[in-house]
Amino acid sequence: MLSILGNTTYRHLFAAQVLSLIGTGLTTVALGLLAYDLAEGDAGQVLGTALALKMVAYVGIAPIAGALAERVPRRIFLVALDLARASMVLLLPFVTATWQVYVLVFAFQACSAAFTPTFQATIPDILESEADYTRALSLSRLAYDLESLVSPMLAGALLTVISFHWLFVGNALGFLASAALVVSVTLPMVRQSVVRPFRERVTRGVWIYLATPRLRGLLALSFAVASAGAMVIVNTVVLVKEAFGGSDREVALAFAAYGLGSMIVALALPRLVAPDEAGAARIPARTAMLFGAMILPAGLVLAGLSPSFGMMLAVWALLGAGASLVQTPAGLLLRRSSHAEDRPALYAAQFALSHACWLAAYPAAGWLGAAIGLGPTFFVLAVGAGVGAAAALVLWPRHDPEIVEHEHLPIAHSHAVARDGHHRADPAAAGSFHRHAPTRHAHAFVIDDHHPVWPRR
């Protein structure tokens, strides 16, 4: 897996991602302490509102940011966002009211909603081999899991010698280092073959996403992951302390078990789903992801029945493994389902739609847990995860080849000519009104201007 770090551009971008994640983890800890400093007993309400604002920013801003990313050089765009995030976290130590926290958190998360999908869409353009890209996806998953373990420990160590306000400074330094690493490399320039209106650029990613069967399946899988993940994130503390009488140490162990399950899968996946020299994977991505989704409702049912803390740790590791089986290969589906010029919009659509699932799952896990108890809530969310897994099984066809034979009806239109199979033979048609005769052929099929509807089987 580490062999891909031999690629200088990817190595610098991965280091930028790690520094950004660690810094964000420090801010998460510091934000909780800041909320208590400002609101004391109402700190939970402040953090809950900030979390909701984060999800709103992710869902609402990502498609707009994807449209902007198409028109701005990627390196300039990413560096500007890192600098903006650094400036915002540096303002947090100086806030004196909760509304200021909300404004800064929303602005910060809006920048993250622009940065993350643009960053993710850049990696497949750097690592053109699907095997290398699969390793990169697993390495990224490991980075997220390790951050959730390392950042709290690092924050705890730092808080023994400095006040929590300095953690925000540490985050700002992480973003500045990330910006410097992005500046140090040359990122591929993706030229748009067609100049589109802003409204079309905003909606294009979602249109491609919802018109692609495998991605409709991915959305259902994202709902299954959110149903399970929300229970872990929202109710672990309550379950450990109230049901099992545990301490903060046991809470940390529970989260560590979830992360460990995820990391084990991330380490194993490159050998399982990456294509071999013949282009075939040991386990198709669809099989791995659906299996992971089926683990989730079963794990939630077991969690509702867990008689001991030890059993809970095993179930949490199982849930982490199931979530990682779904999430880690998701980038492969996005790569296979888009042209390079549409990737920023499509990754932004995945970012927004998947977080919309979390926006629904978070309050469900919290409110139901308080209203009907944790046991029944586990079963309700298990139904949600099961519905997501079952929907994915239906929406994502078993036979899902990359190369699809299909038929084109005769059309006449005008646009800048792309270098594809529809225009290569007629370069004189560039920018002019031209016609396409009816034809039937086969190639790697993705939704685009010439293929607005997925072929029927």
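the 2nd protein, sequnce then structure:
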Amino acid sequence: MEKIQLLEEQVVSRLKDMHMKVSFAESCTGGLLSGRLLNVPGSSEVFDEGYVTYANEAKHRLLEVSNEALRSYGAVSRQVAEQMARGAAKRSGAQAAVGVTGIAGPDGGTVEKPVGLVYIGCFVNSKVVVTENHFCGSREEVRIQAVEAALKLLLNCLS
């Protein structure tokens, strides 16, 4: 009977096959995405570094997210997710990177940006795809759903 591969195992396997490195820039997921990938034996072959940039100043300093984007669009935006992914790739030298920014709750949401809104940017070989996601549930559930969506997007971008 063939073993069913977990999502993170598929990502590591695909990255190995493509001889690529990945880095992550996380805000609302706070390191969960990196941790999930690092659960896979052999993940050290494809993952060198990640960034948890919760504060705007950290996004700017570590990932070169522009202050203009942070002011004009807010930390939870398509533009910032894209810049986080690009910044993580540039800073780490990885061929692939994922940026995650959102509102996990239970507070912090607005009518325009409700709790559960998460933007995920995926950078692969200089191209970035950004998705807008709306998750439901507790803070922990939103964060877990964001990690799952980020892994799926990365796998899709590597296809």
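The mean pLDDT is 97. The helical segments are 7-17, 32-38, 56-63, 67-73, 78-92, 139-157.
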